[in-house]
Predict the structure.
Amino acid sequence: MSTPSKGNVGRRGWMKGAAALAGGTAAAVMAPSCQTRSATTTQGLAETRVTAAAESAVVQTAAGKVRGYTRNGIGTFKGIPYADDAGGAWRFLPPRKPVPWSGVRSSMVYGPICPQDKGDGWRNDEAAFLAEWDDWHQGEDCLRVNLWTPGVNDNKKRPVMVWLHGGGFTVGSGQERRSYDGENLSRRGDVVVVTLNHRLGPLGHLDLSAYGEKYAGSANAGMLDIVAALEWVRDNIAGFGGDPGKVLIFGQSGGGGKVSSLMAMPSAKGLFHRAVVESGSSLRQGTQENSRKLAAAMLVELNLNPSQVGELEKIPAARLFEASAAALKKLAPPTQRGAAPGAGRIGWGPVVDGHTLPRHPFDPDAPEITAQVPMIIGTVMNERSPSMTDAALESLGENDLKTQMAERYGEKGGRIIEAYRRAHPKAKPVEILSLASSPRTNAVKQAERKAAQNAAPAYMYWFGWKTPVLDGRPRAFHCAELAFVFDNTDLCAQSTGGGPEARELAAKVSDAWIHFARNGDPNHSGLPKWPVFTAAKGETMIFDTRCEVKDDPDRQERQVLES
């Protein structure tokens, strides 16, 4: 059998960088052993009821009144501006407060998403089937929040769960996946769920700081947007039944990288009180040296000299993306294009600029300014799932495995295969390839550095539940846990298969996130005791059909990979 191709996946790079951003995974063929519980679920409501009336679901915000609607008893608000239009003369500049309005602003439909180059992942029918992307409409007036709440204007103080979407720092939105819908999570936990859009790619991270003080924050404009959204939560969430003193931020993939970066940003200090990183343990972010190289290359592609930087605000966004692709093609090797800029890579993402982001998020250690913020950190077992959209790879032979591992790891490839074979003697070659391509390295390092502060606790998880969809080929794939965290496995049946088994696990996972938002501790009666992570033991909760805690379950395999 010849060496197989990676398949046409494109848009999200399902196999192309998930583990690099995530910190990976590694031990799929496990048999965890804790009994599932019979949990009350919020997914299977008998009927849907919607109320949308002039006087219902109206809340006063700092900028004016907004009106949402009620669906199945949950107040739903969409497209609320948390900052002003970021286009035109305000491109690349810090976000501004929204312009106040009179009367009541209807807020029942999602707002624009940041302009972006979506790529061509939709061309792969199976990838598009699993993800069910909703690309919506694009526009630079995209700084919007969406929220779900069990009650408005009721003086209750519910935990607030603020979601940061994936897609690296270049694509995605707070509404692009069905799993992000916050209704079920809000109802299940009596919590307020918030999702948001912010600037991405060159609109969010073009470092023009070399061309004038005006652009001092341009390299981190997208992250400053998120800070502005958290400030909006602080100032307005009480009217939506939320507690501004009990805010959790959580994000997956690129969203986990955003959470990691916020932990080290002085302007975000005090705006959140718990943090969850899902498959996105970013230890380092971009350097100013590289970000300025990319900006200079962009100017060349646009035929602008440094004195013409002001012209950038007039160029159509689509042209900026064309210039971005051309500049990255010249500066970054193919395997790094579109990747977050940590670990010396050139790409779009946060930049250590000395003020907005004064240091790398978790290198060489955890940031002191958020030492008192507890964290949940974890990954899925098959961050890279080679056969997910290429059924032929299920027949990968042993010789082909050796070839692929040698291409990736050189002479060390054979030793890595042996290490994973010892841990998983019955695994197929494609499973060994997946596990070895999905190490938990960054996630474990992040947890170790958090634990070393001896301040707020860190809890580690490893999501191992494998979907039955597409003959089970995706396994525990990158993004697999999202529907479970949001208690949306029925809504996302195309990726979960739906049904009682997925629903039971969703109850366990979502309850853990809810308890963590409320108490800073994810333990609840449906799980075995989830201990605080320590570097010595590496305590890790394995989420699967049956759940259990294991001490550093892939330590030996990681040691071979990292040697």
About this structure: Residues 1-40 have pLDDT under 50 and may be disordered.
